[in-house]
Amino acid sequence: MVAVAKLTPQKIAATEARLEGATLPEGAGWARAAREAALERLRATGLPARRDEYWRYTKPEPLYELPAPRAAVFDAGGEAPVFGEIDRVKLVFVDGVFDPDASDEPSLAGVEIARLSEVTQADIHWAKDLFGVLEARGQSPVPRPLAALNTALAPDGVVIRVTGKAEKPVSLIYLHRDESSDAMLHHLVRLEPGAELTLLENGPAAARFNKVLEVDVADGARFHHVRAQGRDHERLAATHIFARLGQESTFKSFTLTANGRLTRNETVVEFTGDDAVAHVAGAAVGDGDFHHDDTIFITHGAERCESRQVFKKVLRGGAMGVFQGKILVKPGAQKTDGYQISQALLLDEGSAFRAKPELEIYADDVACSHGSTTGAIDETLLFYLRARGIPLEEARGLLILAFLAEAIEEIEDEALAADITARLEAWIRRHRRAG
Amino acid sequence: MLEIRNLHVKLEEEDKEILKGVDLTVEAGRVHAIMGPNGSGKSTLSYVLAGREGYEVTEGEVLFLGQNLLEMEPEERAAAGLFLAFQYPVEIPGVGNMTFLRTALNAQRKARGEPEISAADFLKLVREKARALKIDADMLKRPVNVGFSGGEKKRNEILQMAVLEPKLCILDETDSGLDVDAMRLVAEGVNALRSPDRGFLVITHYQRLLDHIVPDVVHIMADGRIVKTGGPELALEVEKNGYADILKEVA
C-alpha cells in the first residue's frame, strides 16, 4: 500500500496559496457541486510535495506553484504536422482556449461533441454522472491532488458521447503561443455499449498544462487513444487519464513524449466488468533538461481481464525517466492477466531511470508479471550492423527504434503507428552524435 | 585481394597475445581454408579483419584491395567488399530482416557512390536469393534472427552474403551447429557465389564442411600462427590423424 502523505501545515499553506484568488468557473448547480466536491478532495489531501512517497522521483511543485514558469514557444519549422495525414475531426485549443475558427465542424455520425463550458450549464445526465466522478474514484488508495485541482478549476474541455462506431478519429490539437500560459482542460468521453472511438491528442498546449481525461467505456465498447506531447523544450505538463472499463470493453492508450522539461502522465484504469482489456503504452525520448514520469495504476476489480503496460524511454544528455506502475488485483478478480514492462535505454552516463513496479494481489488464480531494465546500446548488435555496412550513427538509430518497437506495436492503427514512428525517426536523426 | 603480413594482435583488456605473426594472402577467385584446434586464434583473426573492438594490433599490417584495412571502420570494410559470416549471428528484436538487409545494401551502395536500389528491385533480388536457400517469406518478415534455429541463422548469414555480393567472404565456423542437410544448403549457397573475382576465407574446425566447399588452399593455424599450408589433401590429413601429428611435425 502506498502510504498517504500527512496533511502538514506546509501542505495546507501550499494548497491555499495555489487557490488564493481562484474562482470556480460558472456553471449549473450540479457542476458547481462537482467542482466544490473536488476542492474538498484537494483540501483533504493537500497538493503534492516532494516528500510524498508518490512523488519521490518527480518534483511536483513546478506543476502547480504560481506563477507558472515561462516556457519559450517552440518553432517546429517546416516539419510535417503530427497526424497530418490522418483524416480526422480537428478541435483546436490555443494556450488552453478553444479556437472555433481553427477547428472543424464537430459533426461525426454516432458521436456527440460539445464543450465542457457549455455542458456544465445544462442538465445532461450522462455528463453529470461522469464529470469528476472517475477522478474521485481514482483518488483512492493514492491521492491525485493535481487532478482534483483540475476538476475544480478547469474552465473548458471537450465532452464526447459516442453511440456508434466513429468513422474517423476526433483529434485534439493543443497549440502553445504564449510564453507564460498556464492552461487547464478537462475532457469527458462516454462510450455507450458497443461504441468505438479513436481520440488523438497532440501539441504542448501551454507553457504549463494540467489536463484530465475521464473515459467511461461501457460494455463491449472500444476506445483507442494516441497522443504526441509537444516538443517545446521548456514546457511542463501534468496529465491524468481516468478510465472505467465495462464488460468485454477495450481501452488502448499510447503516448509519445519527445522533449519537455517536466512531464507527469498518470493513467488510472479500473476494470468493473469481466473480460475487458486495457493496454497502456508509452515511448519517451529525451535529451538534456528532460524529466519524464509515467505513473500507472490499474485496478482489476472483475474477472478474466487483461492489462498490459509497456513503457520505453530513451534518455541522453542527463535526461531523467521515471516509471511507477502498479497492478492491483482485488479479491475475486480471478483469471486476471497482468503484464508490465518498463525499460530505459541510456545513451550516456549522465542520464538515469528510476522504476517502481508494484503488484498487489488479493486473488489466488491470476497471472501477473513485471519486468524493468536499464541499459546501454548493445555493442555486439552494433558491431553486427556495422559489419554489414550500416554506418555507426545509422546503426545506433536502428537499435534505438528497435528498442522502442514493443511500445509502438501497441498502436493498432497502422497509419497512426507509422506517424509516430516517423516522429521517433526524426528525433533520432536530430539527436545523432556530432561527427 | 587480402594480404596479411606479420599480424600480431592482443586482447585490449588483458595483456594476452592471440595472434603471433600471421602471414596469409587470399587471391580473387580462390578459396582458402583455415583449420586449427580450438584456441588457435582463427575466430580472432576473423574479428580483427571485420573490425570488432576489443583487439589491439601490436605489429604487422593488412591490405585489402590495396587499402590499409586496419585503419577502416567496420562499415567501411563492408562497403569495400569484406563480409564476415558470423559464428554466432546475433538476434536483433525490433529490426525486421528485410529492413535490415535493405538498409545494409543501400548504405553500402551509398558509400560506394552508387544509387540506392528501388523497393521493387530489392524485393525481387531478396526473393530470388532466399528461394535458393529455402528461406521462406515468414523468415524474411521476422526480426533479424529472432526465434531462428541454428541452421536458419546460418542460412540467413549466407542470404546476406548473397544479397550484398562482397568481394571477400570470411566464413567463421559456419558449419558449427548445422546438421547435414543444413550444411549442404549453406555450402550450395556459398558455391553459387564462387566466381573469378571473389575470394573466400573459410574458417573451420572440422574437415566436413570442406567436402562441400572444396578449398584451393588449406592452412593450419596453431597458437596464433599459420604453421602449415597445403592443398585440400591437408584437410583430409587432419580428418584422419587429428591436429596432434601436424603440430608435432612443425614444432
What's the main sheet of chain A like?
Answer: 10 strands, mixed
Structural class of chain A, by secondary structure, is alpha/beta
**Residue-averaged pLDDT of chain B, rounded?**
93
Ends of chain B: how far apart? Answer: 30 Å
Number of helical regions of chain A: 9
Distance between the termini of chain A: 49 Å
Question: How would you classify the quaternary structure?
Answer: heterodimer
Structure in a nutshell:
The complex is a heterodimer of chains A (435) and B (251). With 435 residues, chain A is of the alpha/beta class. Chain A has one domain (9-377).
Task: Describe this entry's structure for a reader.
The complex is a heterodimer of chains A (435) and B (251). Chain A is built from nine helices and 19 strands. Chain A has 435 residues and is of the alpha/beta class. Chain A has one domain (9-377). In chain A, 55% of the residues are buried. Chain B is an alpha/beta fold and 251 residues long. Chain B has a single domain (2-250), classed as 3-Layer(aba) Sandwich (Rossmann fold), CATH 3.40.50.300. Chain B has helices at residues 42-50, 74-80, 97-111, 119-132, 137-141, 150-164, 180-193, 209-212, 233-250, and strands at residues 2-11, 17-26, 31-35, 55-64, 67-68, 82-85, 92-96, 143-144, 168-172, 199-204, 217-222, 225-230. Chain B has a six-stranded mixed sheet with strand order 6-9-10-3-11-12, with helices on both faces. A four-stranded antiparallel sheet of chain B has the order 2-1-4-5. In chain B, α2 packs across α3 (97-111) and α6 (150-164) runs parallel beside α7 (180-193). Chain A binds chain B through residues 379-381, 383-392, 394-395, 398-399, 401-406, and chain B through 50-53, 73-75, 77-79, 84, 86, 89-90, 92-95, 99-100, 103-105, 107-108, 111, 143, 160, 164. Chain B: Keywords: ATP-binding, Nucleotide-binding.
Please give the structural blueprint:
The complex is a heterodimer of chains A (435) and B (251).
Chain A: H1 9-19, H2 29-45, E1 89-94, E2 97-98, E3 111-115, H3 116-119, H4 125-128, H5 133-137, H6 145-153, E4 158-162, E5 170-175, E6 182-191, E7 196-203, E8 208-217, E9 222-229, E10 236-245, E11 250-258, E12 262-271, E13 277-287, E14 291-300, E15 306-316, E16 320-329, E17 337-346, E18 352-361, E19 367-375, H7 379-387, H8 392-408, H9 414-430
Parallel strand pairs in A: 1-5, 4-6, 5-7, 6-8, 7-9, 8-10, 9-11, 10-12, 11-13, 12-14, 13-15, 14-16, 15-17, 16-18, 17-19
Antiparallel strand pairs in A: 1-2, 3-4
Helix pairs in contact in A: 2-6, 7-8, 8-9
Chain B: E1 2-11, E2 17-26, E3 31-35, H1 42-50, E4 55-64, E5 67-68, H2 74-80, E6 82-85, E7 92-96, H3 97-111, H4 119-132, H5 137-141, E8 143-144, H6 150-164, E9 168-172, H7 180-193, E10 199-204, H8 209-212, E11 217-222, E12 225-230, H9 233-250
Parallel strand pairs in B: 3-10, 3-11, 6-9, 9-10
Antiparallel strand pairs in B: 1-2, 1-4, 4-5, 7-8, 11-12
Helix pairs in contact in B: 2-3, 6-7
